Amino acid sequence: MKLPSIQHILYATDLSENARHALTYAVSMANRYGAKITVMHVIETLSASTMSIISSYLEEEQLERIRTDKEQAAVRMMTERVQGLCNEIEDACPYTEILVERGNPVNRVLRQIETGDYDLVVMGTRGLGRFEEAMLGSTARRVIRRSRVPVLVVQLPKGTQQKA
């Protein structure tokens, strides 16, 4: 039996402090297998009704500038967090690309899995209780159900305080 080869990891993040813990797993796996990491964040698009309200107050040019600023801020934040973590660990930090997209997080992550050459997806989870999970659903859970590659879901260690 041939063991799986992990050469490219997709690390999908919501940029929360909780997601930092999952990044340590992605880096550890990448270093162990000599893999590269693509870091991805999806900015969720607003509903049509919300967009209608906002567009009554802002011109399209202003709205597009806000979107662009938000994307640039997300790229800066991801770069800072990834580089910050890389500075804290002794091993090399093999991230190769940072992606920021707009849309539905589940659909965008799944599309990236389909179009990329990934062997593993790493995601963090807030560890919601059963009620919250049933009512709200979970991005990680929905990705697991539909992904063609294995998904490693990392929860915060017990006793760790979650940050928003």
Weakly predicted, low-confidence segments = none
Q: What's the CATH C level?
A: Alpha Beta
Oligomer: single chain
What structural class do helix, strand and pairing data support? alpha/beta
Order of helices and strands: EHEHHEHEHHE
CATH H-level superfamily? HUPs
Count of individual helical segments? 6
Largest sheet: 5 strands, parallel
CATH architecture: 3-Layer(aba) Sandwich
Q: What is the percent of helical residues?
A: 40-55%
Adjacency order of strands in the biggest sheet: 3-2-1-4-5
What fraction strand? 15-25%
Number of domains: 1
CATH topology: Rossmann fold
Provide an overview of this structure:
The protein has a single domain, classed as HUPs (Rossmann fold, 3-Layer(aba) Sandwich). The chain is α/β, with parallel strands linked by helices. It is built from six helices and five strands, in the order βαβααβαβααβ. The model has no long low-confidence stretch (mean pLDDT 81).
